[in-house]
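Entry 12.
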Amino acid sequence: MRTLLRDAWTIARPYWFSGERWAGRGLLALVIALTLGLVYINVLLNRWNATFYNALQNRDYAVFIRQLVRFSWLAGAYIVVAVYQLYVNQMLLIRWRRWLTERYLGAWLTDRAYYRMQLVDGEADNPDQRIADDVRLFVADTLTLAIGGLRSAVTLVSFVAILWGLSGPLAVRLGGIALTVPAYLVWAALLYAVVGTWLTDRIGRPLVRLNFEQQRYEADFRFGLVRFRENTEGVALYRGEADELRGFRHRFGAVVGNWWSIMRRQKRLTWLTAGYAQAAVIFPFVVTAPRYFRGEIPLGGLVQTATAFGQVQDALSFIVSSYTDIAEWRAVVRRIAGFERALARVRPPAAIDGGIARADGDGARLVVERLAIDRPDGQPLLAGVSLVVERGDTVLLYGPSGVGKSTLIRAIAGIWPYGRGEIRMPPDARLLFLPQKPYLPIGTLRQVLSYPTPADGVDDHTLRATLAAVGLPALAERLDESGHWALRLSPGEQQRIAFVRVLVQRPEWLFLDEATAAVDEATECRLYRLLRERLPATAVFSVGHRETLRAFHARQLVVRPGTDGAASIGEAVDVSRPDRRRVDADPTNVG
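Predicted 3D structure (tokens):
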């Protein structure tokens, strides 16, 4: 419990000390005030019970009418306070959720933590579900439980005082010894609540783990459906419907199996809580009735005492009545706390085995010095990489598959943290990286072409002319059309869209990781010529396997697998070009 509360406070604290702290604290204070107002009205209604039922017993019509009028304004006040308590509570909920969601989105996207999280096994599965669902549940359950607990505590203090005054002593004999229990109804309510709470915890404790697993299984099933929808063409071409169906059934089977476990556990818990709640209706009358039938209290006193007893018992039974919510809240806290720990682990890349250092260089060169790249499990991938790429250079990197060519690009981009060495690049350099499969966001075609810069930063004439230049003139009149373009366009068309971004954004350093693998050789030639014609000062560093790429690059580097598991990079020597610069695995050779 100590760990749970510490994790919950770690998640909640930043909001209450953020720039929105005064608005949040003000709303919370208002919610608390309205909650206390509801408790106070309940106290007044409890007193009203005594007067009203005594008037009925005494057949006092005048008092009866006055109490009806009094009840009208008490009930009206209760309705107004209850409505605004709910409204202000929901206002605080959405403000807190918005702030917390933005915080986690920022932490997830900062320093490309989202990418590094998927490289390591950890406790942060389905981060999208944790941001979208778990944050919502955490805020809602935290406010519900906190305000409910406060209301129960205030109700307990208020009605214990009333019940203590209404409850007379109880004389009991134990082994010939006469004992007098003062305010026995208070102790009876306490004993009833303690027994119920203990039994509820014994029966319901497994729900914490089951709710945690249910969230994970639901997220896995939903992710599988989304992934299928985004890869429908591949599935259709492979005729993989039967395998996909097996996968869906397997994931949903986990959802159903865990749900059955929750059902069985909740059935046991409901036997207890439902029986407990029904017994609570009659229990106060049972323990109060002897005094009424002895004539020690009137009917109004009986109803008031029973109501006060019910309020005390209900306040003491807060854990019993809220156990399902508490179990869900505990599971949510564990999931968000795990997400925060995962973010903390992947955020500083330099903390992993010394890391790959990044520094500012001069404005004309990108320098990679004594770079060693590892796999996530620590196994060496590339070793002793030292090279220089100057403004306007054209460099081709090729070699066997799986030896680390694309990983070198990732290291230069700053998203691969596993390794050692130093990368120096010009400060404020404009770099652009094109992967083999471009990312096309859902939105208008104008937004897709401008990504990641704002869509209004490029005029329509430039976009239309560039689309025609890369061989996509038919798209020039569809700039305002919105859709899922990754599903509408072929892989070759998507790669040409990526070249539109290059020509529009005009980077100083361009890295292409098999960025033309899906187009024909004629189109590839056309795209590279566009780069040279329109961006002559841009350094182009390409990774690819095609022989046709060599004609567009002045320098050619080859990756050679090593006997110790780590590959090295050397320059492919062209005897017809004796003046070419050279790069190899020797860390002293930096150009």
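Annotation: The mean pLDDT is 83. The chain has two domains: 2-347, 356-571.
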